[in-house]
């Protein structure tokens, strides 16, 4: 006999699944595929972001894990009050629980899909560059100009993945019905914080894009010029 699940429980389980997909995807996207590069090969360590890039990505990853797991737990104890300690945990996690907490909003679904796509793009970039992919900006003697795979579509696909990861995870955290939105923070303060974080990430990434292009042009000369002419788009094909 097939197991039946009522629509409310199914919605709650779907939201928990989406939150877990978000956490796993962000973890994969922000986990370095290789050890830190030798300091003698690192370029442009002038900014705070460049000096602390691994620490920044680690903290971002942990913050997303904390938020998604607490959100998933709040959904579980609100939707399934018969679970052990559920009423007590529900009061602790969300004193003013809203019915929207257990329903995945369209923004949360879109954010999860964005994070998932960003993670896939990042993993493909990790695999394509192999040992050349480091979180630090580096040019080593063994460096080669990679122009195949996703790098045949845009010049900086890993940053496309980062944008999708950061914007998607912010959407998941701040979506209507999210744990942060419904239980603890005012939408206004969330919006200001998210806007500041996204603006800082955009600014730091734009600086890295310019620095990478400059260093690759210096290292590979005509080969890079031909590549840049063949692949003029930095992040989004046909747009920029």
Automatic annotation (TrEMBL):
Enzyme kind, highest EC tier: transferase
Name of the protein in its database record: Protein-S-isoprenylcysteine O-methyltransferase
Species of origin: Rhodonia placenta
InterPro entries assigned: ICMT_MeTrfase, Metal_cation-efflux_comp
Subcellular location: Endoplasmic reticulum membrane; Membrane
Enzyme nomenclature, EC number: 2.1.1.100
Known catalytic reactions: [protein]-C-terminal S-[(2E,6E)-farnesyl]-L-cysteine + S-adenosyl-L-methionine = [protein]-C-terminal S-[(2E,6E)-farnesyl]-L-cysteine methyl ester + S-adenosyl-L-homocysteine
Keyword annotations from UniProtKB, A to Z: Endoplasmic reticulum, Membrane, Methyltransferase, S-adenosyl-L-methionine, Signal, Transferase, Transmembrane, Transmembrane helix
Membrane topology, as annotated: Multi-pass membrane protein
Keyword RNA-binding appears in the UniProt entry: no
Gene Ontology CC annotations of this record: endoplasmic reticulum membrane
An MF annotation (GO) of this entry: protein C-terminal S-isoprenylcysteine carboxyl O-methyltransferase activity
Main location: endoplasmic reticulum
Recorded family membership: Belongs to the class VI-like SAM-binding methyltransferase superfamily. Isoprenylcysteine carboxyl methyltransferase family.
Signal peptide boundaries: 1-23
């Amino acid at each position: 006999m097939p197991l039946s699940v009522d629509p409310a429980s199914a919605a709650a389980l779907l939201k928990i699944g989406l939150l877990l997909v978000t956490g796993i995807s962000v973890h994969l996207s922000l986990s370095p595929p290789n050890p830190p590069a030798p300091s003698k090969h690192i370029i442009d360590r002038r900014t705070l972001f460049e000096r602390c890039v691994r620490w920044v990505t680690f903290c971002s990853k942990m913050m997303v894990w904390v938020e998604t797991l607490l959100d998933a737990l709040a959904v579980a104890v609100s939707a399934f009050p018969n679970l052990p300690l559920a009423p007590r945990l529900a009061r602790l996690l969300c004193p003013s629980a809203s019915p929207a907490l257990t329903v995945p909003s369209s923004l949360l679904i879109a954010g999860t899909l964005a994070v998932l796509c960003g993670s896939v793009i990042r993993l493909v970039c990790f695999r394509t560059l192999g040992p050349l992919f480091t979180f630090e900006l580096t040019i080593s003697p063994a460096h080669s100009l990679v122009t195949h795979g996703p790098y045949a579509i845009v010049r900086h696909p890993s940053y496309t993945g980062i944008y999708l990861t950061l914007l998607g995870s912010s959407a998941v955290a701040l979506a209507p019905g999210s744990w942060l939105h419904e239980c603890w923070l005012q939408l206004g303060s969330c919006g200001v914080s998210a806007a500041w974080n996204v603006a800082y990430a955009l600014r730091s990434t734009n600086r890295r894009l310019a620095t990478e292009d400059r260093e690759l042009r210096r290292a590979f000369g005509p080969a890079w010029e031909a590549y840049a002419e063949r692949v003029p788009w930095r992040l989004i094909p046909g747009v920029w």
